[in-house]
Amino acid sequence: MANNFFEDIMKSVQQAQDFIDGKPTKVKSNVVIVKEIPEYNSEAIKTLRMDLQLTQKLFAGLMGVSVRTVESWENGQNRPNGSAARLMKLLSDHPQLMEDIIRRDDGLLA
Q1: How many Å apart are CA 65 and CA 84, to the nearest integer?
Q2: What's domain 42-101's architecture?
Q3: Closest listed residue to residue 107, CA positions, set 50, 51, 53
Q4: What global pTM score does this model have?
């Protein structure tokens, strides 16, 4: 296993040198672009929560934050950070994901 690791390192070094020397390379690369995280204002947050038919308490649980945090988002005191805003975007685009995160015993939306 250590021998394979050394061979992989040497191969990578040779590919890097070939690239520097301008030689054609067989290395494939993938370009990944991460979409910008949208900003959510208080109205958009409350609209999303209402569209999902959730109380502030359930929305807080879904988002992994406190009820006070949801309240502060909805009254404009704070805005959701990166991961919370990203989750809101996912839930906005794919509301069915909510069912993978929360379980309802009575089958009714709270």
Answers
A1: 9
A2: Orthogonal Bundle (1.10)
A3: 53
A4: 0.66
